[in-house]
Amino acid sequence: MTATKRRVLIIQEAMGGCGRHVVDLVEGLDPERFDVTVMYGTSRIDDYYRKALPAMAGHARLIPCDDLVRPISPAHELRALRAVMRVIREFRPEVVHCHSSKAGVIGRLAVLLCGRHSGVRRVFYTPHAYSFQAPEFGGRKRVVFVGLERWMSRHATTLTFNVSAGERDAALAERLDTPAKFEVVYNGVADVPVPSRAEARALLGLDGLGVPADAPVVGVTARLVEQKDPLTAIGVMKRVVEQRPDAHLVMVGDGDLEPAAREAAAGIADHVHFLGYRPDAERVVAAFDVYLLSSLYEGMPYSLVEALRAGVPIAATDTTGNDEVVTPGANGTLFPVGDAEAGAKAVLGLLEHPIPTEQVRRTYRERFTLDRMLETISARYEGVPPTGGERDEEERA
């Protein structure tokens, strides 16, 4: 069997949803079919990925790369490019899979520079939200990012895996490449048992925080950073508390906006609880009555899929990614980005008219299981093209 294994090189930035995706991919790929090496950037590695490294080492060779950094830095980028080329020449992978924009450019360029004798037969790319989708990148920067993505897709990519149909639509709107070069592969999470509501609340220690056992809890498990817009979440909760003074907001996650979020919550401090990063975030989500996500933009947020798995209805901003997880009326409600008033209305509606747990879970099982994600990516690694049925399903998405 060893001789038939396909050598796969994964190149990535190790943080957030991108990091989680690769951890699940590496641990889930069949070791009888794939020989995996992971080259990962260390500059923004988060706690989740750092703690996953020992287990990942049992499934793949791990190569840290200090020069895969987010800021534009020619010196770092040149060193990273050389490092990737060196790994390609030594490992001679049949498949190269790049994750995130920076790794996507460097990894694909390295394959081109190594030439046709490198052994690489297929190059895949998962952007996890294109850089040009971010609101902070406009004007000339956006034009440059679009141009880079277009050139790389047309000259150095076998297939792009988009984590949402909205992300794929953004690629097609910018004419990055032909529709056949993109396939939607939703982030999946394992269908494992989750704690009961009471068990999850005990894990969070809500009694010790002064949250009554019967109090409605609105929760979020996301980084407190600009993309997730936690200040709007605080604004939503201020309006919720005006009508439901028994309600509480639990924020699981850390980030550079935590001080600003705490300041914004000063007027309702008894109702807002900052619990920081927790490695069990995907389990404690079961403690919530409503999951709240106020993102400015997304690729395909794992946190929402975890909420569905736990049977927790969602109030989320109507943006790319979120709008493919949330089906209004079936598992939650969408509201406009930055609109705290509409967000509060969405949360209050879900508290007053709860959606049955099993109905919410059904939407997870239909589209967002880890097995589904692994089966699709494994088939592409082995050269199996998307079938007509899979293309039809993408169009429905």
From TrEMBL:
Residues 15-189 form the Glycosyltransferase subfamily 4-like N-terminal domain. Coiled coil: none annotated. GO terms for molecular function: glycosyltransferase activity. The keyword Transferase applies. It holds the Pfam family Glyco_trans_1_4. InterPro entries: Glyco_trans_4-like_N. Signal peptide: none annotated. Keywords: Glycosyltransferase, Transferase. It comes from the Bacteria. This is Exopolysaccharide biosynthesis protein. The lineage of its organism: Bacteria, Bacillati, Actinomycetota, Actinomycetes, Bifidobacteriales.
